[in-house]
Structure formats: C-alpha cells, structure tokens
Design goal:
Elements (H helix, E strand, L loop, with lengths): L1 H6 L4 H7 L2 H19 L2 H12 L5 H26 L1 H10 L3 H22 L1
Helix pairs in contact: 4-5, 5-7
Length: 121
C-alpha cells in the first residue's frame, strides 16, 4: 500500500484512512514496554533462567527455550491484538471457524518455526 501511495496510484488521504492507527500506537507502546521490561530486570531474569536451565545442554536447547519464552511473552499481546483486529472477525464467522482452529494452526506454526529457525540460527 505504501508503494502505491508513493507512486501516486493511491491518494495519500486514502492511504491514511486505511491505516489502523490503534495498531500503530500499540506497537509504539510495545517498544516502551520492552524497554521497561529490560530496565526492571525482566530481561536479565529471563536470561538467567535460560542460561541456568541449559548450562550443560547444547546451544540449540537454549535457543529453543529463548524462542519459546518469546512466544509466551508475546502470546498475550498477540491474543489481545487478534481479538480487536478486523481480519480475524472477517475470517472467523463467515467460515465457521472456532477459537480452537486458530490454536491448532498456531501450534503447528510454532513447531515449524522452531524446526526451521533453530538449525538455521
């Protein structure tokens, strides 16, 4: 969409009307939340836990725990965002999806992310 606006194919006013500004504001707030998490020692505590739990284990185990910790920390934020985002509503009700359908696909995607990213990293 930004490319269309930059080239003039879509008027700038229409581009700005299509942006969900509540999501932009939430993402900006998450930057501050992440900074605060680090300042109060949450990041150090997480690192200490992961290092303590994987001290004598392969490096890949620490990486798996890091990815899982990220998923757990980001999970509530993602759920709150999904509950307020129009796309989920558009897909869920007309297609007869239940919340469990998203959960099953999400679990599958988490497993795929771990299986692909850990060996690559």
């Amino acid at each position: 969409m930004a490319g269309y606006a930059a080239t003039g194919w879509v008027p700038a006013r229409e581009f700005y009307e299509q942006v969900d500004w509540s999501i932009i504001v939430m993402l900006a707030c998450l930057l501050a939340l992440g900074e605060a998490f680090g300042m109060v020692g949450g990041a150090g505590l997480t690192v200490s836990f992961i290092l303590g739990a994987t001290h004598r284990l392969p490096t890949e185990t620490a990486l798996v725990l890091l990815v899982l910790a990220t998923m757990v920390i980001a999970g509530p934020v993602a759920i709150a965002l999904a509950s307020r985002h129009k796309n989920n509503t558009l897909m869920m009700e007309p297609n007869g999806y239940a919340f469990g359908d998203y959960w099953r696909l999400g679990l599958t995607m988490h497993i795929i992310v771990l299986a692909v990213s850990v060996p690559i990293l």
